[in-house]
# Entry
Amino acid sequence: MNSGSYFTKNDTAIIKGFAIMLIVLHNYLHWQDGFGIENESDFLQQNVYTFLHYLYPLRWTETMSAIFAFFGHYGVQLFIFISAYGLTIQMMNASSFNYRNYLLKRLKKLYFLLLFGIIIYQIIFTIHFGELYSLKKTAVKIVLLGTSVSGFSDTYVYKMISGPFWFFGLMVQLYIAFPVLYKIVKKFNIYSIYAATFILISLLYYVDIHTEFNLFGNIFGHLPEIFLGIFFALNKKTKPSFLLFVISIFVYVLSQFYGFVFPFGFIAITLIFLFLIETLKPYLNSFWTNILLYIGKISMILFVVNGVFREFSLFSIKDMQLRGERIFLYLLLLFIVCHFVYKLYDYFYKKLRI
# Structure
């Protein structure tokens, strides 16, 4: 791995911009009939063969849909990594630490975004369906998300108001546990940490496949990405070595064919994406750099809006060819809406001094 530098704010925004585009395209495209082929919370070997089938012969609609349907959800891993990285930098730069103040500050921001996102969801839902989404169900789901209880069960994890909202519960857990995880990385050898983590994940994955427990809806399934973010920040690393990149490709491929390797594919794809982003970033011209910077800036608004926005009848159509073509209109309108929603969010965020 390289050393001697930190991610700048622009670097972080570019990673977020790349990650949210993966997520937005995945959330839209995997809803097509026959394209729910991602191995996200559950492993199904047939999904890989279905994905490969769409790659050849090349048909732009099917091929591009398959690529983002299969890989797009891994944008979440990049957000987890960069969140842990950012928290580590803040911890390193703090002159003192008070757990209560640390936690309240971050949960206040997170809960504000959650409540703001729910209000926007209700507005868009009402425009589309002509009525509010059940206020009783909304209140229950706010509690489940706010306490992060929803992230432990297959029954609830992806059914919290809007599909992508499950991530809020994971972030609650990350904020609560981070100071302990930070100390672990500072105190112990990273290889020992990963050895213990992989044993824990293997045991929990066994529980996952035999019960309603959802390993990847909560912090336990994402400890490798969190530890990676902390380790990178503590050691001034921004890019995996080429050898680690190659090993990660090997591990990821195995994880898509063999269930016992599946839980380790998430850290592998995180390392792959980080290597590719850092390798290709110097070749971005100013236009694409500015585009990614802006997308990264409004990434959390894109995150809370895209789940409900895709439900409009203009976009939730069955014909794959038409749906594939309509994605350009979808993205255009989504970005226009999110631009103004971000302005509104930023106004209240500053006005209320969140």
